[in-house]
Amino acid sequence: MRYAILFDFIKKHKFTYLLGILFMFLASYIQTLFPKVLGQTIDIMKINGFEKNAVFTNLLYILMIAIGTLIFTFLWRIIIFGNSRKLESYLREKIFRHFLILPTQFYSQRKTGDLLAYSINDISAVRNIFGPALALSVNSIVVCVATIFFMVTTIDLKLSVLTLSSFPIIIIFILWIGQEIHIQFKIVQENFAAISDRVQENIYGIRVIKSFVQEDKEICNFNQLNNNMMDSTIKMVRTSSFLSPVIEICFSFSFVFSLIYGGNLVLNGTISLGDFIAFNTYLTMIVHPVVSIGRIVNLAQQGLASLDRLIEIFNVKPFFDKKNSINQLTEGNIEFRNLSFCYPNSTKTVLENINLKVPNGQTHGIIGKTGSGKSTLANLLFKLYDIEYGKIFLNGKDINEYSMQGIRNHFSYVPQDTFLFSTSIKNNIIFFKDIYSDEEIEKASQDSNIYDSVIRFPDQFNTLVGERGVNLSGGQKQRLAIARSIIKDPSLLILDDALSAVDAVTEAQILKTLKTIRKGKTTLIISHRISAIADADQIIVMENGRICEQGNHRKLLEKGGVYYEIYKDQTKDQKKS
Ligand SMILES: Nc1ncnc2c1ncn2[C@@H]1O[C@H](COP(=O)(O)OP(=O)(O)OP(=O)(O)O)[C@@H](O)[C@H]1O
């Protein structure tokens, strides 16, 4: 069901909602008793030598009405607004959970700022439906129905019909404006998402912007988005600003009819002066709820527009493992059989006819021109994209038989663009898993050659790395990411150009250590540098998504093909220096 996510929440909180609505009903209904009591009091006081006791009793009623309204209003506000805040937190948790289980390809098509807008603005707009909009609706319905009922039954039917004749016009107008607001609010939200995306991207890329002196251009781009946001908001405000004045004009006519026709009824004795005052008080009382209909429509349409956006996200199918999928992957035997691959929403074949066996315990190096498909090959081993059956085998079984969790628990991947969390070095190594001892953390950092750098920091392993590791050098970030991967002692370790920012000596040291600690386990080293893979058991050379050469360093040099050319190119520079 489309709104299932909301119904689940409402079902869970139905008793508090019912109680809150009951209190709202009582608070609103009690208010509508006031005009009649006021009218009666005036009629009593009109008579010479009026009964003081009767007036006193009526004043007591008025006081009780005020106290009752206060108590019930206090109670419903706590319950209903409390529930709306719970709903906000519930939706935020749901969307965050959903974001984490969505397939990787979802993130290739969405921008971060847009996703932030969902988590903040849209959820808050949905909350408004179940907070202020709900409260105003109940109040408006109860006050309008009760007031009209009292006007018609206790005062005068004709006078009521005449003064309320503008109501249908108001309702039609509100419904028409509501549709416009719905459309315009969606545009406002999209513009907000674009702004938040731009701010996020600029802050993230501030160093690049500064180094290319792009500040003015970026400010100009931002101003354009900001103006779009302002224009769309002003357009929406302009549309919604019609609501109140139109409603108020309609009411002015009602008051004119009431004064002319109602005044005549008093003069010819059809209704009393008290009734006339009560009628006008009813009319005054109804103005606020009817004007509120405009606000309710505003809030509801904004909330519904946001709800549509949220549901669109919730409808994106997350990845789920199939039943009985395998969790254990203690060995790293890998086989690609006739694998060809295109990225979703792309027609370009990125990998073509890949046939490759990596037996457990071996180290394979992968080299090739940029864009030749090396990272894609590695990504597919992590089930980042759907792969048909019969193409990739892990320990003799199809990759689709394994659970996502199983693969990611037993395999480790150090990507090209290292990502560090804004926390301590230690947390970045253990990745918030308190299962590693201090000795294991130190060992992993020694093996990845980052230990000496860490202990030179005043706070050592507790040093905060800053957002995305801004306080560390490129090489330090890479080595920290390697430490994070090797502490898991995975059955398959993939280093994707993960040594590109370290110097040749450090690279050699890390590779030497890896050789020891990775004995009996599979390692794939993707690199542009021959030095990083020369020692591998097998080297795969890729070109345009195909494996063009395969063998060990010596054999490939003897062959005098692509690998030999790369080797020649790289050693030529060394010889010169
Ligand atoms: N998410 C994606 N969607 C569509 N195409 C992609 C995506 N990621 C990569 N590609 C394309 O796939 C091809 C192979 O990319 P890949 O990253 O695997 O190359 P690579 O050999 O690792 O390159 P490099 O050495 O520069 O890292 C490239 O043409 C690239 O543009």
Automatic annotation (TrEMBL):
It is a multi-pass membrane protein. The keyword Transmembrane applies. Residues 334-569 form the ABC transporter domain. It is found in: Cell membrane. InterPro entries: AAA+_ATPase, ABC1_TM_dom, ABC1_TM_sf, ABC_transporter-like_ATP-bd, ABC_transporter-like_CS, P-loop_NTPase, Type_1_exporter. CDD domains: ABC_6TM_TmrB_like. SUPFAM superfamilies: ABC transporter transmembrane region, P-loop containing nucleoside triphosphate hydrolases. It holds the Pfam family ABC_membrane. It comes from the Bacteria. PROSITE patterns: ABC_TM1F, ABC_TRANSPORTER_1, ABC_TRANSPORTER_2. Keywords: ATP-binding, Membrane, Nucleotide-binding, Transmembrane, Transmembrane helix. Residues 18-302 form the ABC transmembrane type-1 domain. The chain crosses the membrane at residues 15-34, 54-76, 129-153, 159-177, 242-261, 281-300. GO terms for molecular function: ATP binding. Its main location: membrane. This is ABC transporter ATP-binding protein.
